[in-house]
Amino acid sequence: MLQLLGEFECKIDAKYRLRLPAGLISQLNSPAPPTFVINRGFEQCLMLYPEGVWNRISEEVNQLNLYNQQNRAFVRYFYRGAQKVTMDSADRILINKRLLDYAGIDKDVVLSAYNDRIEMWAVDAYEQILANEPNDFSELAESVLGGKNNPDL
Amino acid sequence: MLQLLGEFECKIDAKYRLRLPAGLISQLNSPAPPTFVINRGFEQCLMLYPEGVWNRISEEVNQLNLYNQQNRAFVRYFYRGAQKVTMDSADRILINKRLLDYAGIDKDVVLSAYNDRIEMWAVDAYEQILANEPNDFSELAESVLGGKNNPDL
DNA sequence: TTAAAAAAAAGTGGTAGAAAGTGGAGTAAT
DNA sequence: ATTACTCCACTTTCTACCACTTTTTTTTAA
Fold first, then answer.
1. Can you tell me which residue has its alpha carbon closest to the C1' of nucleotide D17?
2. Spatial contact of B118 and B47, defined as CB atoms under 8 Å apart
3. N or C: which end of chain B has fewer CB within 10 A?
């Protein structure tokens, strides 16, 4: 089970390539050059899933009966343009222009890894969302993690 | 079992031909030039099924008793103008004008592959459908992907 | 403890080959 | 004769690989 961690600032070059930081690649303990699935995430970011993680998740989604309207909407939204990306020989992945536009990414990017996945943000969007959190963070923690005497906090 | 994936932006030429992206063709692991069945999809898109997938699906529908009025209506709706399309020597398929009209496709198209099939959308229609989250998304996610704090979302 | 050397990581660009895009002409069908 | 489809040829764009420079970190030795 993956336990990714870390926040990395990276740059996207003129050819829409993003080099993955060595500190992140090493966490994947993948023997071959790692492959990912990338798609649109919530709140204007992109999500990067190690291939194995994506497969595990999508397997369940693919069980859904697609004659059901609600299910179709769900599957579409779940995928949100997911596509496979592979690293080149210089540890870079090529990112679709459409996806970059979605996240408002121009050049400067923050990668934020947690659990088994990686979020990709435009730097300014990331800073903005972090700046807004603290106000309601404790409230949020309370409702997410249960009672205010939760030992986990 | 096919596990298609990917979002591709393509153009339809003046002769209503669509070149299938190499990244998609390679996923079909079909030795001969692949054949598809195309028909009207739900929600203003066209559906492209690899021939084998279509055969599997239509087989079930063909079990229905056609002397039943309701069954006939369903079958008609199921087929919705389905037709076989084959790739030409330049990896293009010719798409019926009536189908293109149905999906409001002029020139720019997004192919979105998931599970064992491919959806074909007019670019603007696609962006619109992705723009809003289905209102019951999180509930569905809960029932499909398990617990209420499921990390898979 | 510091400085120099070495190694790793980050950043950049060129290029060959593949893929995408486009048009024309020949053939078949109506 | 006109339309519709298929094949063929060509140009442009893209992308994966390779090579190189700069920066940062680690190691080694004075």
1. A89
2. yes
3. N
As assigned by CATH, the class of the B4-145 domain is: alpha beta
Nearest to B136 among A58, A70, A83 (CB): A70
Separation between Cα atoms, residue A129 and residue A79, nearest integer Å: 24
Q: What is the pLDDT of residues B34-50, one digit of tens each?
A: 889 999 998 999 999 99
For residue B5, give the 3-state DSSP assignment: strand
Q: Does A1 touch chain B (CB under 8 A)?
A: no
pLDDT tens digit string along A13-59? 888 999 999 889 888 877 677 899 999 998 899 999 999 999 999 99
Under an 8 A CB cutoff, do A81 and B129 touch? no
Residue pair B119/B24 in contact (Cβ under 8 Å)? The answer is no
CATH topology (fold) of A4-123: Chemotaxis protein chec (3.40.1550)
